[in-house]
Design goal:
The N terminus is likely disordered. Among the domains are: about 140 residues, Immunoglobulin-like, CATH 2.60.40; about 30 residues, no CATH class; about 80 residues, no CATH class. The protein is built from 1 helix and 25 strands. It is mainly beta and about 375 residues long. The protein is elongated. Strands 6-4-3-7-8 form a 5-stranded antiparallel beta sheet, with no helix packed on it. A 3-stranded antiparallel beta sheet has the order 1-2-5. Strands 9-10-11 form a 3-stranded antiparallel beta sheet, with no helix packed on it. It is about 0% helix and about 40% strand. A hairpin with a 2-residue loop joins strand 12 and strand 13.
Length: about 375
């Protein structure tokens, strides 16, 4: 719904010499909420007269349908509309105060929107003369008997301009309500902000300063200690956001060779088996099985236990080492055997033979066996 704004109102008494009139002229300029004039259009206008206060008792109500002119001016005669409540001719204007409330419907109907309430500060003389006891004494001490030059106060609150005992108008179209002490609009205080590489000013424009800075927050404001990344590609060394260095022949072998002799470098054989050791045969380094594992392996277990899969058992059932009766497990396969305290874990890649008995020479602590075959 469009909100109508009443900008001005004019009351003119419709008088004649024969008798006191029962109406007076009312004019208003009608605008929409965008401050555009509503011209050459039918509009509905409702007039309500209230007593004692802006929300006081309704004394009179009427409705009009009028056509605005090319300047948005609507003209009607209060007292001549379609009466809803009261009698205009019976209003005692001397027993005020009275307030006029106006409402409009831009479509010319009766869906009225209140656009203003104002106090009657004066009443056309011809209307007041019907009820005044003394038209020459209105009980107001007006020293110069001139009602057109009465003293009033005007005040500005933001964008609302008010007059004492009168109405209030919105002048936001003329000024923004900001108190500018020096009346100079070219030196107003504004805020500046930086978002990434965009520099903005309040109520102003935004510019891109990426050509001056990259939008990165450098906490210490020192451009000489920024974090960078270094990379090597073939024979060239690169640094982020920087240059590069050609390494030439250095890019082929970057190992620190203490004797500067490329003919005596250690190279690992490629044909080694799991568990092999590195062995020098007089000419080069080769992979070889651990020494001593080529003639098989021997393991002692507690008497009655079972040897590992693939191993043979030699029944002994005698406390060979002065501890508990043992049996022997043996194999011709190249294997390594070690004993660990019972409950410990064998090395990775080795198998566990649980024993839980002191089967090693001169040891009274229960042990288990770990073995690995090649």
């Amino acid at each position: 719904m469009r909100k109508l704004l009443l900008l001005a109102a004019l009351f003119v008494c419709d008088s004649s010499m024969a008798q006191s009139p029962e109406k007076f002229t009312y004019q208003s300029v009608i605008r929409d909420e965008a401050q555009n004039l509503i011209f050459d259009s039918n509009v509905g206008i409702q007039i309500i007269i209230r007593k004692d206060s802006p929300s006081g008792t309704i004394i009179f109500k009427e409705q009009h349908t009028v056509t605005t002119n090319q300047n948005g001016l609507a003209t009607l005669e209060i007292g001549s509309g379609a009466v809803i409540t009261g009698m205009f001719s019976s209003i005692d204007w001397s027993n005020g105060p009275y307030f006029i409330e106006t409402g409009t419907d831009p479509l010319g109907g009766t869906n009225f929107t209140i656009i203003g309430v104002s106090q009657f500060l004066s009443v056309p003389y011809a209307l007041h003369s019907k009820t005044a006891e003394n038209v020459f004494n209105d009980q107001v001490d007006d020293a110069d008997n001139n009602p057109t030059n009465e003293i009033q106060d005007i005040s500005l609150n933001g964008t609302e301009l008010s007059i004492t005992n009168g109405n209030t108008i919105d002048i936001s179209a003329l000024q923004d309500g900001v108190n500018d002490a020096d009346n100079n609009p070219t030196n107003e205080i504004q805020d500046i902000s930086l978002n990434g590489t965009e520099l903005s000013i309040t109520n102003g424009s935004t510019i891109d300063i990426s050509a001056l800075q990259d939008g990165v927050n450098d906490a210490d404001s020192d451009p000489n200690n920024e974090i960078q990344s270094i990379t090597l590609s073939n024979d060239t060394l690169y640094i982020s956001n920087g240059g590069q260095v050609f390494l030439g022949d250095y890019g082929v072998d970057l190992v620190d060779d203490a004797d500067n002799d490329t003919t005596n470098e250690i190279e690992l054989p490629s044909n080694a088996n799991l568990g092999d050791l590195l062995k020098y045969d007089g000419n080069s380094w080769i992979a070889a099985a651990p020494t001593g594992s080529t003639s098989g392996a021997l393991m002692y277990i507690y008497d009655g236990q079972t040897c590992p899969s693939g191993w043979s058992t030699q029944q002994i059932n005698v406390a060979v080492f002065g501890g508990v009766p043992v049996d022997a497990c043996y194999t011709d396969t190249s294997c390594l055997v070690m004993y660990i305290y019972h409950g410990q874990t064998c090395p990775s890649g080795w198998s566990l033979q649980p024993i839980n008995a002191p089967v090693t020479n001169g040891n009274s602590t229960p042990v288990d066996a770990c073995y690995k075959c090649y």
